[in-house]
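Each lists sequence, tokenised fold; shown next:
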Amino acid sequence: MKFIVTPVPGAFVVDPEPTGDERGLFARVWDRKELAARGLSTAIEQCSVSFNPRRGTLRGMHYQAPPHGETKMVRCTRGAVYDVIIDVRADSAARRRWFGIELTAENRRMLYIPKGVANGFLTLKDDTEVYYQISAPYVADAARGVRWNDPAFGIVWPETVDVISERDRRYPNFGHES
């Protein structure tokens, strides 16, 4: 596994390093020892799947408030997404900094997202599925979000948003989140 530093401290793009032969390929997508050696969380409390039938579906930008923060490893297992993270940590020098990357079933890339960093994605293909490994249980009262198009971040999305939940559409401006 190859870990690529992002502009958001503690977040990494993780590339599997496949080996192949006439049968296809084989690659590690989770290695507790490799994550721990980099000081990254190795806890997995739950795994989740998000299926999205329509291209142009946006989910995000979500995070859990302390003390219920969660680390995530996100991978697109079918289709393609533009995955975005935003540093919303109050004590971070990178606060408000965002990073986006295309995750596809074909490139097999993953995104490691530390606690205090909001995450969301825009589907780039119909019938897209995203797989999450999450370090902490979901706590509904700790669920938070920031708006995907808040000018405080200036995210450049590669395509038009056609499908979005009312909750995600109505998140407040950054600094006014509940």
